[in-house]
Amino acid sequence: MNLVFSSSHRSIGVITYILLSGASPFLGDSKQETLGNVSAIAYQFDEELFSSTSELAKSFIRQLLEKDTRSGVRVSSHLEVKGQMRKKYQYVEF
Question: Transmembrane stretches, by residue range (predicted)?
Fold first, then answer.
């Protein structure tokens, strides 16, 4: 199995989605539907689960889950989002 950079980004996007919502982004009513959702990268931000999630965080997830790897997140985008979040939430690094 070859791990490509885009799949690493998608994994981070899925993990971030789960951490912020407690739900799987691609979960369907059956295994077949779930596999179809994964293949199509079909997900949505459930209003109830994401009501207190910032647009910045949702944008970060969207970019990580982007199907077209040419328009996906770049390292510079990660750093920019991290900087914006640090300013907004005044994170303290240890």
Answer: none
